[in-house]
Amino acid sequence: METEKVELINFNPEAYLKDGEMVYSKRSEIEKLADKLTQEGYKNIYLMGIGGTEFELYQFAYAANRMSDLPVKVINAADLNAVHPRDLTKDTIVITASDSGNTPEIIEAAQWLIKDDIRLIAFTKKSGELGGMAPTVIEVNGSTGSGQNYYMAEAMLVYSLLYKHGDFPDYPQFADQLKNVFKDLLDIRKKFEPKADEIAHKCYKAPYTIFTGSGALWGETELFAECLLEEMQWVRTRPITSAKFFHGTLELVEKGVPVFIVEGEDEFRKQDVRVQRFCEKIGAEHYVIDTKEYSLSVDDKFRHLVIPWIVNSLLTDRLTNHYQVYTKHNKNYRRYYRQFEY
């Protein structure tokens, strides 16, 4: 498909590519930080988020747990504040992110983590509340607000730590190939744009929509369903892992209830395809988001580390913007979220 003339609604391609260059220019800074943390020593890593940031971090724990015996966990900041896990000590590295810089649960966690001398790395703006208190800040927020800004920077930190831990010997090659990923993701957006419009037009009025995904893509599935459609578009959804779908949610599939199936390329793919086969067998309305349909200029052995960025580009960016066209609901408008104290 020719994509040169495709117009992307509510998107600035030039600014997006500049953001990619900006983030990639942080590579040396991030890898030096990984050197420093490795020299200091650590026993485990916590990836701390809340809402969208929690979902976005799943991909790194998933990949780390495939490559290493180093304990790497994702934890919800509110749960962290409630539980104070026993394995979270001065030998822990905590990595977090906040685009706003003032996410309440993350600010609360940062306060006691810093007080307890636990190393905290924050991907956020230096001018924000979190940026002003975190001892180590990596600033990657560009002009487009793309999630991939954070993904690339976080990937360089987590995977360079694994490299220095002896678990990812090909990291330098992987990092070299990231240089062109934003160009790939721009082309992927253009390829998907007509399909995004078609899907949004068909589904925006549905009273209820089911989303399935797994493995490296489960976080992106939850992110789109909960943060983009529920929070930003007030669209009722049911995100469920592909495996769990068959133990409850399948009975809710009926006429007028679309099923979105996010299909990856890892060992979990067979679970995703099983949902597709079920929908085909009963004649259910379903939409397959298959990352195999989209090319990347990274070696195949690295694709599983980057395919969450494909799904983020397709759903969180493109499909959200097309839903907004048909719902006539500005995605930045909230009734409750951050509107008052609760």
Automatic annotation (TrEMBL):
It comes from the Bacteria. InterPro entries: Fructosamine_deglycase_FrlB, SIS_dom, SIS_dom_sf. Gene3D superfamilies: Glucose-6-phosphate isomerase like protein, domain 1. One of its GO terms (molecular function) is isomerase activity. Residues 33-172 form the SIS domain. Keywords: Carbohydrate metabolism, Hydrolase, Isomerase. Its EC number is 3.5.-.-. SUPFAM superfamilies: SIS domain. Catalyzes the conversion of a range of fructosamine 6-phosphates to glucose 6-phosphate and a free amino acid. PANTHER family: FRUCTOSELYSINE 6-PHOSPHATE DEGLYCASE, GLUCOSAMINE--FRUCTOSE-6-PHOSPHATE AMINOTRANSFERASE, ISOMERIZING. Homooctamer. This is Fructosamine deglycase.
